[in-house]
């Protein structure tokens, strides 16, 4: 369930609205802001903390990585906004420090740590930095830009972190809006319950994005450096309509079509809108990493992103988290007055099927992977 409310992408306006995406959660500290509605995300992050520690203690050679420089550089790609990002980076640094003490017990000097926060130019870095502790023991920098491109100097990065960011596509496949294409996604906003050609268009775009991401990190990262990846996934061969995410996206599409009937929005607007979200199965992820060839896979597994979720789902609170992460992409496409209507109806619609949501499969919906630069 928490996989739904990760950092968001919003589509650019004007002629590129159907093709490109930029990160845009609700910034600031307001009632609907991502900063105040991201507790589910933090709980999901806590699920993998011990696994990240185990992987770093086993696979990261900090002595070799810090031998040529006394600087150890960590970057968070797709950092988003809020305290979750800061807490995750501090947890990561504590683990690296623990590994350094374990591997280099006779060393009298700990490396100097630098943390780099990367996200799109539209990200609210000002709000992000208000969460930095006054007594932080590391240097900080922000580097705006798409992580599908190189954003750091060559061979300058030792450890990368990317949590719930890779599943956002860099652009939407053009064929989704082409009436002549088998992948024309008329009346739907996602590949959930759509024809197989739509799913293939999404999968093809994700494969291209993953290769771009890995190639960019390959240029930035030193040999032996590591990438920690946590993100939305699904078991190989499972239809997306069987999981909570897919059910919710279908509900959103249904609500938008109802709004067409009442005149709130046009049918053409719905046909032109598609969520730029792809939950990559592990088999496709492994194929993409192996095809790229720059990294070895040290760890890969599917997990339950919300083992802490017990009992009935608080639908209004859940939708508030969803809205904080996803409103940007809707508001950049539909009239502002339609946004409240969409999310108000989403609360009602999900409340009607709350038992179905609670019973949905979720054990293998979070991908955890550790990659090592060859």
From TrEMBL:
<keyword id="KW-0808">Transferase</keyword>
<keyword id="KW-0479">Metal-binding</keyword>
<dbReference type="InterPro" id="IPR005299">
    <property type="entry name" value="MeTrfase_7"/>
</dbReference>
<dbReference type="InterPro" id="IPR029063">
    <property type="entry name" value="SAM-dependent_MTases_sf"/>
</dbReference>
<feature type="compositionally biased region" description="Polar residues">
    <location>
        <begin position="15"/>
        <end position="24"/>
    </location>
</feature>
<dbReference type="GO" id="GO:0046872">
    <property type="term" value="F:metal ion binding"/>
</dbReference>
<dbReference type="InterPro" id="IPR042086">
    <property type="entry name" value="MeTrfase_capping"/>
</dbReference>
<dbReference type="GO" id="GO:0008168">
    <property type="term" value="F:methyltransferase activity"/>
</dbReference>
<feature type="region of interest" description="Disordered">
    <location>
        <begin position="1"/>
        <end position="29"/>
    </location>
</feature>
<dbReference type="Pfam" id="PF03492">
    <property type="entry name" value="Methyltransf_7"/>
</dbReference>
<dbReference type="GO" id="GO:0032259">
    <property type="term" value="P:methylation"/>
</dbReference>
<keyword id="KW-0489">Methyltransferase</keyword>
<protein>
    <recommendedName>
        <fullName>S-adenosylmethionine-dependent methyltransferase</fullName>
    </recommendedName>
</protein>
<keyword id="KW-0460">Magnesium</keyword>
């Amino acid at each position: 369930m928490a996989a739904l409310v990760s950092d968001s992408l919003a589509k650019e306006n004007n002629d590129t609205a159907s093709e490109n995406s930029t990160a845009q959660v609700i910034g600031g500290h307001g009632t609907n802001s991502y900063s105040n509605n991201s507790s589910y995300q933090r709980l999901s992050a806590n699920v993998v903390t011990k696994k990240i520690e185990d992987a770093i203690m086993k696979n990261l050679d900090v002595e070799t990585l810090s031998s040529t420089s006394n600087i150890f550089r960590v970057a968070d790609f797709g950092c988003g906004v809020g305290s979750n990002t800061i807490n995750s980076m501090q947890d990561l640094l504590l683990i690296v420090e623990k590994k350094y003490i374990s591997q280099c017990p006779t060393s009298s000097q700990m490396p100097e740590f630098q943390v780099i926060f990367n996200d799109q130019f539209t990200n609210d870095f000002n709000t992000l930095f208000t969460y930095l502790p006054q007594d932080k023991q590391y240097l900080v920098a922000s580097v705006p830009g798409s992580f599908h491109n190189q954003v750091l100097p060559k061979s300058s990065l030792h450890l990368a972190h990317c949590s719930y960011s890779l599943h956002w596509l860099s652009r939407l496949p053009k064929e989704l809006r082409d009436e002549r294409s088998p992948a024309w996604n008329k009346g739907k906003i996602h590949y959930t319950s759509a024809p197989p050609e739509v799913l293939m268009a999404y999968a093809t775009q994700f494969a291209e994005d993953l290769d771009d991401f890995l190639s960019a990190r390959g240029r930035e990262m030193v040999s032996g450096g590591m990438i920690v990846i946590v993100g939305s996934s699904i078991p190989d061969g499972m239809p997306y309509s069987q999981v909570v995410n897919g059910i919710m996206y279908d509900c959103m599409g249904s609500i938008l079509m109802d709004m067409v009937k009442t005149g709130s929005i046009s049918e053409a607007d719905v046909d032109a809108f598609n969520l730029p979200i792809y939950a990559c199965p592990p088999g496709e992820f492994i194929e993409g990493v192996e095809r790229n060839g720059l990294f070895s896979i040290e760890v890969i597994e599917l997990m339950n992103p919300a083992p802490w979720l017990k009992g009935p789902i608080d639908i209004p609170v859940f939708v508030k988290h969803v809205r904080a992460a996803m409103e940007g992409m809707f508001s950049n496409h539909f009239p502002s007055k339609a946004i409240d209507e969409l999310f108000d109806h989403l609360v009602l619609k999900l409340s009607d099927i709350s038992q179905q949501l609670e019973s949905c499969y979720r054990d293998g919906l979070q991908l955890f992977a550790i990659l090592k630069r060859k």
